Amino acid sequence: MTHKRTLLTVGAHPDDIEIGMGGTVALHSKTDNVYMLSLTEGDLSSNGTVETRQQEAERAAEILGAGRLQLTWRDRMLTAVTQEEYTQLVQLIRRIQPDTIFAPYYIDRHPDHGDAGSIVKRAVFDAGVKLYPGVDENAHKVPNMYYYMINGYHRPAFYVDITAAAGDKEAALKAYKSQFNPGEEAVSTPLTDGYLETIQARDRLFGKETGVTYAEGFIAETPMLFQQVPGRQGSD
Q1: Mean pLDDT, to the nearest integer, of 55-74?
Q2: C-alpha span between 115 and 100 (Å, rounded)
Q3: What's the whole-model pTM score?
Q4: How many Å apart are CA 202 and CA 224, to the nearest integer?
Q5: pLDDT, tens digit, for every residue of 109-122?
Q6: Beta bridge pairs of residue 92
Q7: Alpha helix locations (H) across the chain?
């Protein structure tokens, strides 16, 4: 019987995960337990209200087939989270006991994305500390942690072929109408000026690099071990 894995994906804001790895979430939701956690409600977004963004996030998670989790840390204040807030994340990791955690890569134009990646890395460590104070759940050592890209391009350590899930990713992103297509009265932001097209172009580029139509790239800080030589099969 195949082991059903548990994946915890973490973003600073609603829509971060969908941008960086929505296709991978959709693929794994068909066979594994996948959770999408947003650390903030994106309450400082130029467009859309917290309530609207929560509704959009629920719809996006439904499209991708993942469970959704929400913390209420302050937007743009991730470096000032309280110990109580931080402990919420440690406890959540222990409760879910993921096999793999994904977080935003720390090189990104938006400071919250990099801060989120650093905080999650620290929380993964503390989730495995047996005597860590203020946490009820048993310690859990997360076997794998990887980073996904939100803004920009970085050389991935590995790629996931998301060709079969590209439509689900696109639909999930379009659920965030307040961010990507808010209308003429909205504030102009990087997200309203062809942003979805740039994300699709990056997925196409990663696909081109790996011989598929669409792919998402991930970064690993530790060496990756395989049970056999990885690679694609050659054609006859």
Answers
A1: 98
A2: 19
A3: 0.94
A4: 24
A5: 999 999 999 999 99
A6: none
A7: 16-29, 50-64, 83-96, 111-127, 166-174, 177-180, 195-210
Going from N- to C-terminal start, the domains of the chain cover 6-219
Nearest to 187 by CA among 50, 52, 46, 51: 46
Q: What is the CATH number of domain 6-219?
A: 3.40.50.10320
The pLDDT of residue 32 is 98
Tell me 234's DSSP state: P
Asked if 39 and 73 touch (Cβ cutoff 8 Å), the reply is yes
pLDDT per residue over 154-205, tens digit each? 999 999 999 999 999 999 999 999 999 888 778 888 888 899 999 999 999 9
Q: Point out which residues pair with 7 in neighbouring strands.
A: 34, 100
HEC per residue, 66-100: CEEEEEEECCCCHHHCCHHHHHHHHHHHHHHCCCE
Strand order in the sheet with 67-73: 67-73, 33-40, 6-11, 100-104, 144-148, 215-219, 158-161
Give me the pLDDT at residue 232, please. 75
Beta bridge partners of 103: 147
- Nearest CA to 104 out of 183, 186, 218 is that of 218
